[in-house]
Protein backbone atom coordinates (compact mmCIF):
# COMPACT_ATOMS: atom_id res chain seq x y z
CA UNK A 1 0.00 0.00 0.00
CA UNK A 2 1.49 3.40 -0.96
CA UNK A 3 2.69 5.56 1.89
CA UNK A 4 0.36 8.39 2.89
CA UNK A 5 2.03 9.93 5.89
CA UNK A 6 2.64 13.40 7.21
CA UNK A 7 5.63 13.47 9.55
CA UNK A 8 6.08 16.19 12.20
CA UNK A 9 9.61 16.16 13.64
CA UNK A 10 10.83 17.47 17.00
CA UNK A 11 11.54 20.91 15.54
CA UNK A 12 7.94 21.25 14.32
CA UNK A 13 8.84 20.71 10.66
CA UNK A 14 6.38 18.75 8.56
CA UNK A 15 7.24 16.38 5.72
CA UNK A 16 4.79 14.74 3.34
CA UNK A 17 5.75 11.10 2.74
CA UNK A 18 4.44 9.40 -0.34
CA UNK A 19 3.49 10.66 -3.77
CA UNK A 20 -0.23 9.75 -3.49
CA UNK A 21 -0.64 12.01 -0.47
CA UNK A 22 1.27 14.84 -2.13
CA UNK A 23 -0.98 14.48 -5.16
CA UNK A 24 -4.12 14.58 -3.01
CA UNK A 25 -2.89 17.60 -1.09
CA UNK A 26 -2.04 19.42 -4.32
CA UNK A 27 -5.78 19.72 -4.97
CA UNK A 28 -6.05 21.59 -1.64
CA UNK A 29 -3.26 24.06 -2.39
CA UNK A 30 -3.51 27.29 -0.44
CA UNK A 31 -2.75 28.81 2.96
CA UNK A 32 -3.89 27.36 6.26
CA UNK A 33 -3.79 28.43 9.90
CA UNK A 34 -3.80 26.27 12.99
CA UNK A 35 -7.28 25.76 14.47
CA UNK A 36 -6.58 23.26 17.26
CA UNK A 37 -4.12 20.69 18.56
CA UNK A 38 -5.20 17.59 20.49
CA UNK A 39 -3.00 14.64 21.60
CA UNK A 40 -3.79 12.70 18.42
CA UNK A 41 -5.24 15.32 16.13
CA UNK A 42 -4.12 18.56 14.43
CA UNK A 43 -6.70 20.72 12.68
CA UNK A 44 -5.99 23.51 10.18
CA UNK A 45 -8.46 25.87 8.51
CA UNK A 46 -8.00 27.38 5.07
CA UNK A 47 -7.28 31.12 4.96
CA UNK A 48 -9.38 33.29 2.70
CA UNK A 49 -6.59 35.85 2.19
CA UNK A 50 -2.92 35.45 1.40
CA UNK A 51 -0.73 36.22 4.45
CA UNK A 52 1.03 39.59 4.35
CA UNK A 53 4.59 38.29 4.53
CA UNK A 54 6.37 38.26 1.19
CA UNK A 55 7.89 34.79 1.48
CA UNK A 56 4.40 33.28 1.55
CA UNK A 57 3.23 35.11 -1.59
CA UNK A 58 5.86 33.69 -3.94
CA UNK A 59 6.93 30.14 -4.72
CA UNK A 60 9.29 28.86 -2.01
CA UNK A 61 12.36 27.22 -3.55
CA UNK A 62 13.76 25.94 -0.26
CA UNK A 63 13.38 26.68 3.43
CA UNK A 64 14.61 25.48 6.80
CA UNK A 65 15.88 26.20 10.27
CA UNK A 66 18.91 28.52 10.52
CA UNK A 67 20.34 26.66 13.50
CA UNK A 68 19.86 23.31 11.76
CA UNK A 69 21.86 24.48 8.73
CA UNK A 70 24.60 25.95 10.94
CA UNK A 71 24.38 29.66 10.27
CA UNK A 72 23.27 32.20 7.69
CA UNK A 73 26.79 32.08 6.26
CA UNK A 74 26.25 28.52 4.97
CA UNK A 75 22.89 29.48 3.44
CA UNK A 76 24.32 32.52 1.64
CA UNK A 77 27.32 30.53 0.47
CA UNK A 78 24.99 28.00 -1.15
CA UNK A 79 23.00 30.74 -2.90
CA UNK A 80 26.20 32.29 -4.22
CA UNK A 81 27.70 28.96 -5.36
CA UNK A 82 24.48 27.98 -7.16
CA UNK A 83 24.21 31.50 -8.70
CA UNK A 84 20.58 31.69 -7.61
CA UNK A 85 18.15 34.55 -8.17
CA UNK A 86 15.50 35.42 -5.61
CA UNK A 87 14.83 36.57 -2.07
CA UNK A 88 16.31 35.10 1.11
CA UNK A 89 14.05 35.89 4.09
CA UNK A 90 15.52 35.43 7.57
CA UNK A 91 13.03 35.44 10.45
CA UNK A 92 13.98 35.61 14.12
CA UNK A 93 10.99 36.35 16.33
CA UNK A 94 9.38 39.51 14.97
CA UNK A 95 12.53 40.61 13.14
CA UNK A 96 12.53 39.91 9.41
CA UNK A 97 15.47 40.64 7.14
CA UNK A 98 15.32 40.06 3.38
CA UNK A 99 18.37 39.74 1.14
CA UNK A 100 17.83 39.88 -2.63
CA UNK A 101 20.16 38.08 -5.03
CA UNK A 102 20.59 38.16 -8.80
CA UNK A 103 22.58 35.20 -10.11
CA UNK A 104 24.20 34.81 -6.70
CA UNK A 105 25.19 38.44 -6.16
CA UNK A 106 23.56 40.72 -3.59
CA UNK A 107 21.38 43.41 -5.16
CA UNK A 108 19.24 44.75 -2.31
CA UNK A 109 18.08 44.24 1.28
CA UNK A 110 15.15 45.10 3.51
CA UNK A 111 14.47 44.86 7.23
CA UNK A 112 11.68 45.68 9.66
CA UNK A 113 14.15 46.41 12.46
CA UNK A 114 14.17 50.07 13.49
CA UNK A 115 17.97 50.31 13.54
CA UNK A 116 18.14 49.15 9.91
CA UNK A 117 15.90 51.93 8.61
CA UNK A 118 17.38 54.41 6.13
CA UNK A 119 16.63 57.23 8.58
CA UNK A 120 18.82 55.62 11.24
CA UNK A 121 21.63 55.01 8.76
CA UNK A 122 21.56 58.68 7.74
CA UNK A 123 21.87 59.72 11.38
CA UNK A 124 24.48 57.15 12.49
CA UNK A 125 26.80 58.07 9.63
CA UNK A 126 26.50 61.82 10.02
CA UNK A 127 24.38 62.80 7.02
CA UNK A 128 21.65 64.43 9.13
CA UNK A 129 21.07 65.50 12.71
CA UNK A 130 18.54 63.66 14.87
CA UNK A 131 15.99 66.49 14.72
CA UNK A 132 16.26 66.59 10.91
CA UNK A 133 15.78 62.83 10.64
CA UNK A 134 12.74 62.72 12.93
CA UNK A 135 11.09 65.68 11.18
CA UNK A 136 11.75 64.26 7.70
CA UNK A 137 10.35 60.84 8.66
CA UNK A 138 7.20 62.43 10.08
CA UNK A 139 6.61 64.74 7.10
CA UNK A 140 7.34 62.10 4.44
CA UNK A 141 4.93 59.68 6.12
CA UNK A 142 2.21 62.33 6.20
CA UNK A 143 2.40 62.86 2.44
CA UNK A 144 3.16 59.17 1.78
CA UNK A 145 6.39 59.83 -0.09
CA UNK A 146 9.54 57.69 0.13
CA UNK A 147 11.98 59.22 2.61
CA UNK A 148 14.86 59.36 0.12
CA UNK A 149 12.84 61.26 -2.47
CA UNK A 150 11.55 63.64 0.19
CA UNK A 151 15.07 64.41 1.43
CA UNK A 152 16.24 65.19 -2.12
CA UNK A 153 13.28 67.50 -2.74
CA UNK A 154 14.04 69.33 0.52
CA UNK A 155 17.69 69.74 -0.49
CA UNK A 156 18.95 67.85 2.57
CA UNK A 157 20.88 65.32 0.46
CA UNK A 158 21.53 64.84 -3.25
CA UNK A 159 20.99 61.83 -5.52
CA UNK A 160 24.57 60.57 -5.20
CA UNK A 161 24.44 60.75 -1.41
CA UNK A 162 21.13 58.88 -1.36
CA UNK A 163 22.65 56.09 -3.46
CA UNK A 164 25.69 55.81 -1.17
CA UNK A 165 23.58 55.66 1.99
CA UNK A 166 21.18 53.18 0.41
CA UNK A 167 24.19 50.97 -0.36
CA UNK A 168 25.38 51.45 3.23
CA UNK A 169 21.94 50.39 4.45
CA UNK A 170 22.05 47.21 2.36
CA UNK A 171 25.52 46.38 3.71
CA UNK A 172 24.47 46.98 7.33
CA UNK A 173 21.42 44.72 6.95
CA UNK A 174 23.62 42.04 5.38
CA UNK A 175 26.22 42.20 8.17
CA UNK A 176 23.56 42.06 10.88
CA UNK A 177 21.86 39.10 9.16
CA UNK A 178 25.08 37.12 9.58
CA UNK A 179 24.54 37.29 13.35
CA UNK A 180 21.30 35.26 13.15
CA UNK A 181 22.01 31.90 14.77
CA UNK A 182 18.42 30.72 15.15
CA UNK A 183 15.10 31.22 13.43
CA UNK A 184 13.69 30.32 10.03
CA UNK A 185 14.76 31.05 6.48
CA UNK A 186 12.94 30.97 3.16
CA UNK A 187 14.31 31.38 -0.34
CA UNK A 188 11.63 32.44 -2.80
CA UNK A 189 11.22 33.48 -6.40
CA UNK A 190 11.10 37.27 -6.53
CA UNK A 191 10.48 39.96 -9.10
CA UNK A 192 13.72 41.90 -8.82
CA UNK A 193 12.61 44.52 -11.32
CA UNK A 194 10.29 45.88 -8.62
CA UNK A 195 13.22 46.74 -6.33
CA UNK A 196 14.22 50.41 -5.97
CA UNK A 197 17.76 51.06 -7.25
CA UNK A 198 19.04 47.46 -7.45
CA UNK A 199 22.76 47.12 -6.70
CA UNK A 200 25.37 44.65 -7.85
CA UNK A 201 27.49 43.65 -4.84
CA UNK A 202 29.79 40.64 -5.06
CA UNK A 203 28.39 38.25 -2.47
CA UNK A 204 31.67 36.44 -1.85
CA UNK A 205 33.49 39.69 -1.09
CA UNK A 206 30.84 41.13 1.24
CA UNK A 207 30.49 37.75 2.96
CA UNK A 208 34.22 37.63 3.67
CA UNK A 209 34.06 41.20 4.95
CA UNK A 210 31.09 40.32 7.16
CA UNK A 211 32.87 37.32 8.67
CA UNK A 212 35.95 39.47 9.30
CA UNK A 213 33.86 42.15 11.00
CA UNK A 214 32.17 39.57 13.21
CA UNK A 215 35.54 38.20 14.31
CA UNK A 216 36.86 41.73 14.84
CA UNK A 217 33.90 42.69 17.03
CA UNK A 218 34.53 39.69 19.27
CA UNK A 219 38.15 40.81 19.58
CA UNK A 220 37.19 44.45 20.25
CA UNK A 221 34.85 43.34 23.03
CA UNK A 222 37.66 41.58 24.87
CA UNK A 223 39.14 45.04 25.53
CA UNK A 224 36.00 47.21 25.39
CA UNK A 225 33.23 45.12 26.99
CA UNK A 226 30.34 47.48 26.24
CA UNK A 227 29.47 50.90 24.87
CA UNK A 228 28.80 52.00 28.44
CA UNK A 229 32.50 51.56 29.30
CA UNK A 230 34.62 54.70 29.80
CA UNK A 231 38.00 55.39 28.22
CA UNK A 232 40.71 57.82 29.34
CA UNK A 233 44.18 58.87 28.22
CA UNK A 234 47.11 57.09 29.83
CA UNK A 235 49.72 59.37 31.36
CA UNK A 236 53.20 59.87 29.90
CA UNK A 237 52.48 58.15 26.59
CA UNK A 238 53.91 59.62 23.40
CA UNK A 239 54.06 58.60 19.77
CA UNK A 240 52.88 59.48 16.28
CA UNK A 241 49.22 58.88 15.54
CA UNK A 242 47.13 59.08 12.39
CA UNK A 243 44.73 62.05 12.19
CA UNK A 244 41.76 59.72 12.80
CA UNK A 245 43.23 58.37 16.04
CA UNK A 246 44.49 61.78 17.16
CA UNK A 247 40.98 63.20 16.73
CA UNK A 248 39.67 60.70 19.29
CA UNK A 249 42.50 61.45 21.68
CA UNK A 250 41.72 65.17 21.44
CA UNK A 251 38.23 64.49 22.83
CA UNK A 252 39.49 62.72 25.94
CA UNK A 253 40.28 65.66 28.21
CA UNK A 254 38.36 63.66 30.79
CA UNK A 255 37.06 60.06 30.93
CA UNK A 256 34.36 59.61 28.29
CA UNK A 257 31.93 56.80 27.55
CA UNK A 258 32.26 54.79 24.35
CA UNK A 259 28.64 55.57 23.43
CA UNK A 260 29.35 59.29 23.72
CA UNK A 261 32.21 58.91 21.24
CA UNK A 262 30.02 56.88 18.86
CA UNK A 263 27.39 59.64 18.91
CA UNK A 264 30.05 62.33 18.53
CA UNK A 265 32.03 60.93 15.56
CA UNK A 266 29.10 59.19 13.81
CA UNK A 267 31.22 56.88 11.70
CA UNK A 268 29.41 53.72 12.76
CA UNK A 269 29.95 51.51 15.79
CA UNK A 270 32.39 49.16 14.04
CA UNK A 271 34.81 51.82 12.82
CA UNK A 272 34.78 53.71 16.13
CA UNK A 273 35.48 50.54 18.13
CA UNK A 274 38.21 49.63 15.65
CA UNK A 275 39.98 52.92 16.34
CA UNK A 276 39.49 52.72 20.10
CA UNK A 277 40.84 49.17 20.12
CA UNK A 278 43.94 50.36 18.25
CA UNK A 279 44.48 53.08 20.85
CA UNK A 280 44.02 50.59 23.70
CA UNK A 281 46.40 48.07 22.13
CA UNK A 282 49.06 50.72 21.54
CA UNK A 283 48.76 51.93 25.13
CA UNK A 284 47.45 55.45 24.44
CA UNK A 285 44.15 54.97 26.26
CA UNK A 286 42.79 52.73 29.00
CA UNK A 287 39.31 51.30 29.55
CA UNK A 288 38.17 52.12 33.07
CA UNK A 289 35.30 51.03 35.27
CA UNK A 290 32.55 53.55 35.81
CA UNK A 291 33.02 53.34 39.58
CA UNK A 292 36.63 54.53 39.51
CA UNK A 293 37.19 57.81 41.30
CA UNK A 294 38.62 59.64 38.31
CA UNK A 295 35.43 59.39 36.24
CA UNK A 296 33.78 62.77 35.84
CA UNK A 297 30.47 63.39 37.56
CA UNK A 298 27.90 63.43 34.79
CA UNK A 299 24.84 65.63 34.59
CA UNK A 300 21.15 64.83 34.26
CA UNK A 301 21.08 64.87 30.41
CA UNK A 302 24.01 62.42 30.19
CA UNK A 303 22.39 60.17 32.79
CA UNK A 304 19.11 60.07 30.87
CA UNK A 305 21.02 59.23 27.67
CA UNK A 306 22.79 56.29 29.33
CA UNK A 307 19.52 54.91 30.69
CA UNK A 308 17.84 55.44 27.32
CA UNK A 309 20.61 53.39 25.68
CA UNK A 310 19.78 50.56 28.07
CA UNK A 311 16.03 50.81 27.54
CA UNK A 312 16.70 50.69 23.78
CA UNK A 313 18.72 47.52 24.30
CA UNK A 314 15.77 45.89 26.11
CA UNK A 315 13.55 47.01 23.21
CA UNK A 316 15.90 45.33 20.71
CA UNK A 317 15.84 42.10 22.73
CA UNK A 318 12.05 42.24 22.87
CA UNK A 319 11.47 43.02 19.20
CA UNK A 320 13.61 40.01 18.24
CA UNK A 321 11.09 37.62 19.85
CA UNK A 322 7.85 39.55 19.43
CA UNK A 323 7.76 41.40 22.77
CA UNK A 324 7.31 44.77 21.08
CA UNK A 325 5.14 46.39 23.81
CA UNK A 326 7.15 45.17 26.81
CA UNK A 327 8.72 48.52 27.79
CA UNK A 328 5.49 50.50 27.55
CA UNK A 329 3.53 47.96 29.60
CA UNK A 330 6.32 47.91 32.17
CA UNK A 331 6.20 51.70 32.49
CA UNK A 332 2.42 51.68 33.02
CA UNK A 333 2.67 49.13 35.84
CA UNK A 334 5.73 50.85 37.32
CA UNK A 335 3.85 54.16 37.71
CA UNK A 336 0.97 52.42 39.46
CA UNK A 337 3.16 51.08 42.24
CA UNK A 338 6.37 53.11 42.40
CA UNK A 339 5.22 56.71 42.14
CA UNK A 340 7.25 59.30 40.19
CA UNK A 341 4.01 60.09 38.35
CA UNK A 342 4.75 63.81 37.99
CA UNK A 343 8.20 63.12 36.59
CA UNK A 344 6.96 60.61 34.00
CA UNK A 345 3.62 62.30 33.27
CA UNK A 346 2.75 61.97 29.58
CA UNK A 347 6.02 60.20 28.79
CA UNK A 348 6.17 57.00 26.80
CA UNK A 349 8.81 54.96 25.03
CA UNK A 350 9.24 55.68 21.33
CA UNK A 351 9.70 52.95 18.73
CA UNK A 352 13.43 52.82 19.53
CA UNK A 353 12.77 52.27 23.23
CA UNK A 354 13.71 55.77 24.39
CA UNK A 355 12.06 58.37 26.59
CA UNK A 356 11.75 61.95 25.31
CA UNK A 357 14.77 63.54 27.03
CA UNK A 358 13.71 67.15 26.47
CA UNK A 359 10.21 66.61 27.89
CA UNK A 360 11.67 64.62 30.79
CA UNK A 361 13.98 67.52 31.76
CA UNK A 362 11.18 70.08 31.35
CA UNK A 363 8.97 68.15 33.75
CA UNK A 364 11.85 67.74 36.16
CA UNK A 365 12.32 71.52 36.23
CA UNK A 366 8.67 72.06 37.19
CA UNK A 367 9.13 69.94 40.34
CA UNK A 368 11.64 72.42 41.83
CA UNK A 369 13.62 69.72 43.59
CA UNK A 370 17.01 70.70 45.05
CA UNK A 371 18.35 67.17 44.53
CA UNK A 372 17.52 66.83 40.83
CA UNK A 373 20.36 64.47 39.90
CA UNK A 374 19.78 62.10 42.83
CA UNK A 375 16.02 62.16 42.22
CA UNK A 376 16.40 61.30 38.50
CA UNK A 377 19.02 58.65 39.26
CA UNK A 378 16.69 56.96 41.74
CA UNK A 379 13.68 57.14 39.39
CA UNK A 380 15.52 55.77 36.35
CA UNK A 381 17.34 53.12 38.39
CA UNK A 382 14.09 51.81 39.82
CA UNK A 383 12.41 51.92 36.40
CA UNK A 384 15.26 49.98 34.81
CA UNK A 385 15.22 47.41 37.61
CA UNK A 386 11.47 46.97 37.14
CA UNK A 387 11.76 46.70 33.33
CA UNK A 388 14.46 44.02 33.65
CA UNK A 389 12.38 42.17 36.25
CA UNK A 390 9.23 42.14 34.10
CA UNK A 391 11.23 41.07 31.02
CA UNK A 392 12.86 38.19 32.89
CA UNK A 393 10.47 35.49 31.56
CA UNK A 394 11.55 36.07 27.94
CA UNK A 395 15.16 37.22 28.34
CA UNK A 396 17.83 34.56 27.91
CA UNK A 397 20.65 34.09 30.43
CA UNK A 398 23.19 36.05 28.39
CA UNK A 399 20.83 39.01 27.98
CA UNK A 400 19.93 38.99 31.69
CA UNK A 401 23.59 38.98 32.68
CA UNK A 402 24.38 41.84 30.33
CA UNK A 403 21.47 43.99 31.53
CA UNK A 404 22.23 43.36 35.21
CA UNK A 405 25.85 44.32 34.60
CA UNK A 406 24.83 47.57 32.89
CA UNK A 407 22.33 48.29 35.68
CA UNK A 408 25.08 47.88 38.29
CA UNK A 409 27.41 50.14 36.29
CA UNK A 410 24.77 52.86 36.01
CA UNK A 411 23.99 52.67 39.72
CA UNK A 412 27.68 53.11 40.53
CA UNK A 413 27.99 55.95 38.06
CA UNK A 414 25.14 57.85 39.71
CA UNK A 415 26.93 57.65 43.06
CA UNK A 416 30.09 59.41 41.82
Descriptive notes:
The chain is an alpha+beta fold. It has helices at 19-26, 66-69, 72-81, 118-124, 130-142, 147-153, 159-177, 203-223, 243-249, 258-265, 269-281, 300-320, 326-338, 341-344, 357-366, 372-391, 397-415; strands spanning 5-8, 14-17, 32-38, 41-46, 60-65, 86-92, 95-102, 105-111, 184-188, 230-233, 256-257, 285-288. A five-stranded antiparallel beta sheet has the order 5-9-6-7-8. A three-stranded antiparallel beta sheet has the order 11-10-12. A two-stranded antiparallel sheet has the order 1-2. Helix 3 (72-81) runs antiparallel to helix 8 and helix 16 packs antiparallel against helix 17 (397-415). It is globular, with a radius of gyration of 25 Å.
Q: What summary fits the major beta sheet?
A: 5 strands, antiparallel
What's the alpha carbon Rg, rounded to whole Å?
A: 25 Å
How many discrete structural domains?
Answer: 4
Strand content: 15-25%
Low-confidence segments, given as residue ranges, are 291-296
Average pLDDT over all residues: 85
How many DSSP helices?
17
In whole angstroms, the N-to-C terminal distance is 79 Å
